[in-house]
Write a sequence for this structure.
């Protein structure tokens, strides 16, 4: 399997957010909302940190 | 706000809090161990079908993708760098699938020159750690601490 970094990040965030959402909340609505929050948190934070590190020379 | 411990609390409120099904410790341990055979199996055995199937799919697919991305499964070899034991602890959380992949001698060897090696290794670590979480979740449900 030859995913790009961003695709691997999306798939990783999807799987982890599914498990986090189910484990941490009790009702299906809360689980879905928390899962979506975790997914977008992963993607946004990784994108921001990636751009912050982009100009670093090492 | 009426507390369920209050003497004036309605009877149905008290029973709703106390009536979570609770398994004995032997069955609870068996349920937790079954999570290490197949991720999510403990939840399926307790009748939590959707939860169990989602765990099986998410963690199982993550493990397979980690292997197919040429990630590395860490071993418990003490002659290697000691910090690799943390990686072994994380990888071993997947249970039976780790043992099967490790004994196949082809899967999980890791290929550092592959572009996806780092991601694959992280996938393998994290799916093991998530499986520890699902085992703890199954423990809580079996002991009646979670609905």
């Amino acid at each position: 399997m030859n995913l790009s970094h961003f695709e691997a990040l999306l798939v990783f965030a999807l799987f982890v957010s599914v498990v986090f959402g189910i484990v941490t909340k009790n009702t299906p609505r809360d689980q879905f909302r928390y899962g979506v929050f975790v997914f977008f948190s992963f993607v946004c934070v990784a994108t921001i940190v990636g751009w912050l590190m982009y100009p670093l020379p090492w | 706000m009426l507390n369920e411990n209050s003497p004036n609390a309605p009877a149905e409120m008290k029973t709703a809090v106390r009536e979570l099904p609770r398994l004995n410790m032997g069955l609870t341990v068996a349920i937790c161990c079954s999570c290490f055979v197949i991720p999510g199996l403990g939840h399926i055995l307790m009748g939590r079908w959707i939860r169990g199937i989602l765990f099986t799919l998410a963690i199982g697919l993550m493990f397979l993708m980690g292997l197919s991305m040429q990630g590395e499964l860490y071993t418990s070899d003490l002659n290697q760098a000691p910090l690799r034991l943390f990686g072994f602890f994380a990888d071993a959380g997947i249970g039976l699938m780790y043992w099967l992949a490790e004994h196949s001698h082809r899967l999980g060897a890791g290929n550092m020159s592959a572009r996806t090696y780092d991601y694959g290794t992280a996938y393998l670590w994290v799916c093991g750690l998530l499986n520890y979480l699902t085992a703890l979740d199954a423990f809580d449900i079996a002991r009646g601490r979670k609905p």
In short: Chain B touches chain A through 23 residues (CB under 8 Å). The mean pLDDT of chain B is 85. Helices of chain B lie at 11-18, 25-34, 41-45, 49-68, 84-92, 96-103, 117-142.
